[in-house]
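Quarterly update from the structural biology core.
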Amino acid sequence: MNKNTILGWATFVMVLMGLLLIGLGIFRYDDVAGWGFGAVGIGFFAIAWVFSSLKGRV
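Predicted structure, tokenized:
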């Protein structure tokens, strides 16, 4: 596996975890904790976007 493949898998895992966290925030927690889970899920999407944009440059 080269660097681009590893970054691709890392992007996939981060998007999957982001969706999971946002889903937990929406469906499981109805109080303030849900907002926290949603914010962390959006942060995972931002990091996945960085990994995706680094894919061809590293």
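The chain has a mean pLDDT of 91.
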